[in-house]
Write a structure and sequence with these properties.
The protein is an alpha/beta fold and 581 residues long. 33% of the residues lie in helices and 21% in strands. Helix 10 packs antiparallel against helix 12. One of its GO terms (molecular function) is metalloaminopeptidase activity.
């Protein structure tokens, strides 16, 4: 075997008739057993630069593991229009009416008191009141009934329960999703949506109501079929929203809804994509496509390993070291098409395209290793927001979108428990758990973000199971030392309808993060795990920069639908717009 490892520059590969192979340059113990060579290949070792290129080619090839490539499917293309016409005169596939429990009230003759339902019921010969009574339809959230009407202008009339959700945005988005579900089941291509009590909505809120309905319809229509052998295209092509007014303001809001939905759908697709398709390099390519598509406002910079070494990103590179797929540090920069920049922001997203846990490998029930493709959900939110903002083009604000993309794998080159990493701000970290890797990548990303001269940073990460235990699967945890920033972002989430809850940054918990040999350890144990993770990230943020960490480990994924949610994108877009002039 010593001959094989010798520094010979020429090796001969020989095969016998029994398919036994021998590597040989000088006489060896195998020579006397060797049959005449059937074929021989002369192999000369290439220079180091060539070998590096081959390793890169191997890494790129890893993206085709399993020979899986997504089908090319266009996102839903639905035209929206706001109209003021009599609901009884509308013609099309489905007329959907959103109703509350109050709208469903009837008089002593079992006739609707609501004027819109009264008119429809009269045209249908009392069928609407009859069916609602038979099916015990009361207008509660989640209830719906669809009636087939042959021979009339509308092929079907549907009643959709609105219930009493705390957020009007969520209520009307759910209405749109319910209509989309009805359109799927009936293969409807055009629908109209109205509210039984639209007159009760203040005029200034009607455009945002129409926008929420449109958002729900687009997102409800979308199905991620890219990895199915027989993907289906949605039938729904046009939606008319009746009774909420017309004009440029509502048209602008409908366009805004579609722009944000395109970002949400993009984010969902990124999270849904398996790790053998969405490698760090593939994620970087998607970011570059955004910059190319909206080149009037975006520029892209992708840093490779050597460039990250020059910036002393030891914390990030330590996580990436074990993977055959090289890391890619992504930096998109949005600059408005004209006018003065008054505010500089940064959005930082955790970008682990797969997390095995490293040497502290994820094992046992509930470890969810099979779902660790979603560990880049923070980067999906950041890039989804970038895509939406590239279309909206807000004025007066510069935004940096930053992702330290990599995989956390296991190999002889990977970081070990007990290793000490040095981040780009010079702070040292003793790795006491390789499965607390996301914060290690974010450390260098946050330092980089601060170096861009930004005033405010929001980072999003699927960071801790502790946050899921605390807040459940639908609420994200928010951590920030800044009350002003908390007010801004929580206000944006109220508009978007996404649920955020501010948690304390208890400084006394930092004691559990102290190391005997380095500046800190990377995890402080199970108690208060979401808080200590946020305290860790704080060590890498300039004290003059307002900063917020959002832990989206719970709401990034919908277990029931087995699909990504696109969480965080609409809130980020709203927040950026609040900071624009």
């Amino acid at each position: 075997m010593a001959a094989i490892r010798a520094a010979s520059t020429s090796l001969t590969l020989l095969a016998s008739t029994s398919s036994s192979c021998y590597y040989h340059s000088r006489p060896s113990i195998f020579t006397k057993f060797r049959f005449g060579p059937i074929w021989a290949v002369s192999l000369t070792l290439p220079p180091l630069s060539s070998r590096r290129a081959k390793r890169m080619a191997h890494s790129i090839a890893r993206a085709t593991l399993g020979l899986t490539q997504p089908n090319k499917i266009d996102p839903p293309k639905i035209s929206f229009a706001a109209k003021e016409i009599d609901v009884g005169e509308w013609k099309g596939d489905i007329l959907a009416v959103g109703v509350t429990e109050k709208d469903m009230a009837k008089d002593e003759n079992s006739k609707f008191k609501n004027s819109v339902l009264q008119k429809l019921d009269s045209k249908l010969g009392g069928l609407l009141s009859e069916v609602s009574s038979e099916e015990d339809f009361t207008g509660k959230a989640g209830q719906s009934t669809i009636i087939r009407l042959p021979g009339l202008g509308s092929k079907r009339v549907g009643l959709i329960g609105l219930g009493s959700a705390a957020s009007p945005t969520v209520t009307y988005r759910n209405l749109g999703e319910a209509v989309a579900a009805a359109a799927k089941s009936t293969q409807a291509s055009n629908v109209a949506i109205t509210l039984a009590s639209s007159e009760g909505i203040p005029a200034e809120l009607k455009p945002s109501t129409a926008s929420a309905i449109a958002s729900g319809t687009v997102l409800g229509t979308f199905d991620d079929n890219r990895f199915k052998s027989e993907p289906k295209q949605p039938a729904l092509k046009s939606v008319e929203i009746l009774g909420l007014g017309t004009g440029p303001e509502i048209e602008k809001k409908l366009k805004y809804a579609q722009d944000v939905c395109s970002g949400i759908i993009f984010g969902k697709e990124l999270v849904n994509a398996p790790a053998n398709v969405l490698t760090p390099g593939a994620l970087a390519s998607e970011a570059e496509k955004i910059a190319s598509e909206y080149s009037d406002v975006f520029s892209a910079k992708i840093l490779d390993v050597e460039q990250c070494k020059e910036l002393k990103m030891g914390s990030y590179l330590g996580v990436a070291a074990a993977s055959a797929n090289p890391p890619h540090f992504i930096h998109l920069c949005y600059k408005p098409p004209g006018g003065e920049v008054k505010t500089k922001l940064a959005l930082v997203g955790k970008g682990l395209t797969f997390d095995s846990g490293g040497y502290n490998i994820k094992t046992g029930p509930g470890c969810s290793i099979e779902l660790m493709k979603f560990d880049m959900g923070g980067s999906a939110a950041v890039l989804g927001a970038a895509k939406a903002l590239g279309q909206i083009k807000p004025a007066g604000v510069e935004v940096h979108f930053i992702v330290a993309a990599c995989e956390n794998m296991i190999s002889g080159t990977g970081m070990r428990p007990g290793d000490i990493l040095t981040a780009s701000n010079g702070k040292t970290i003793e790795v006491n758990n390789t499965d607390a890797e996301g914060r290690l990548t974010l450390a260098d990303a946050l330092v980089y973000a601060c170096n861009q001269g930004v005033e405010k940073i929001v980072d999003l990460a699927t960071l801790t199971g502790a946050c899921v235990v605390a807040l459940g699967p639908s609420i994200a945890g928010v951590f920030t030392p800044s009350d002003d920033l908390a007010k801004e972002v929580l206000g944006a989430s109220e508009v978007s309808g996404e649920k955020l809850w501010r948690l304390p940054m208890e400084e006394s918990y930092w004691d559990s993060m102290k190391s005997g040999v380095a500046d800190m350890v990377n995890t402080g144990g199970r108690q208060g795990g979401a808080i200590t993770a946020a305290l860790f990230l704080k060590q890498f943020v300039d004290e003059n920069v307002q900063w917020m960490h959002i832990d989206i480990a719970g709401p990034v994924w919908n277990d029931k639908k087995k699909n990504a949610t696109g969480f965080g994108i609409s809130t980020l877009v709203e927040w950026v717009l609040k900071n624009s002039s």
